[in-house]
Write the structure tokens for this entry.
Amino acid sequence: MQSLTYGQLIRGNRNFRNLLTGQFISELGNWFNFIAGLGLVRLVSDASPTAAGLFFLARLLPFALASPIAGTFVDRFSRRQVMIATDIARALIALSFLLVTSPDKLWIAYLATVLLHTLGAFFDGAKNAAAPNLSGKEGLLAATALLFSTRFLLMAIGSALGGWASAAFGYEAAFIINAASFLASAYTVWLIPEEATRDAETGARMNSMRFRRKQTPPSEQPNFVAVEPRESFLTELREGFNYARNTHFALTILVMNVIWATGGGAINIIFERLGGVHYADAEGWNPDIAVALLWTATGLGLTAGMLIAHRTSIYIDRKNINHGFIGWTLILHGVLFAAAAYMPTLWMFAVMVFFSRMIVGVEYAVQETMFQRSLPDYIRGRMSTIERGAELTVFGFVSYASSGLMFYMTPQTLTIISGILSGLAGVVWFVRERKPK
């Protein structure tokens, strides 16, 4: 199948362009919130690693736990309306960080973070389920790369700007920018027509009836006829889990990403301890700017990887090396991240992080495109959120556990362990997916 280029997709598809614009704006605000929120927790808690661990857990675990429910929800109801409603609600919640002015009010930051990321699970579930319909099959690779590369680019830009704004103007400015970004995102989603976010079969299922496909000639559009009342919410939730368990390729992707998270989950604490404490003390960095630099390197690396994914995919398809490419790139990115532990300066550590994330960025674009193409539209929301939820559940618990490990080991040792564990995802790929003949 011939894939559209990035330029062709953006120029020729207004609906996808609106979705991409909304994500760009809201992700910029999200990273302002992350750097400012982390800095606020560090300031109020006197740089407690446990407090930082709780903050990361509040970001990741609610998203993970809400994801399966969110996936079922967006497969049943309007994906467009879900995105608009969650954006407006998150704009109001983002402003509650302004109330955190003393240690006894730190719980407000944790609660607001939980609510933001619970709603974020519904927004992401709706966005990920709608994106293949907005882009079409020919534009899916370019759409996947653009959606993730802009997210990671904003990780870089938003982290850098968020660190600078927090240091220059205080944390309050970052929280206000975050709230405004959600409102701007809601407007861009509102511009997308409802019918563009789903295919005909999914639209029929949303009308409270179970539909089946009528037999029609290949030249005609498929039609659907009602045959029975629609199944319950819990039944469709179980259907998603059953699909994940019984479909070999879907289960492979799920297991791979969970294994990756056993190592990748430590990255939050690694960056916080190395950037905000170790290099800040050793080299005189401002803690917020040092942490932001590492997230900037991560975002730039992932963005670079995503942007070369289109040409890379064409090359590996022509050479028929998709199987080895996914496995070896996962292993290589883990080795590079582990080697970063031996870097003596923050800049050298950031360079190693950049190349590690660039490699995994290319791999993820290819892997995610294969995964999305394998899924029927009616279950895409559930599968995207189940996979993401499982990954982030492990990611969140590992983040919190890593904060406890800082009392027993150095962040450099944790970096080595993180790289080795995340690289094992490539081994899982080789074990579960045999090379096509």
Observations:
- The longest strand covers residues 224-229.
- The radius of gyration is 21 Å.
- The domain at 6-198+231-432 is CATH 1.20.1250.20 (Growth Hormone; Chain: A;).
- Residues 52 and 437 are 49 Å apart (CA to CA).
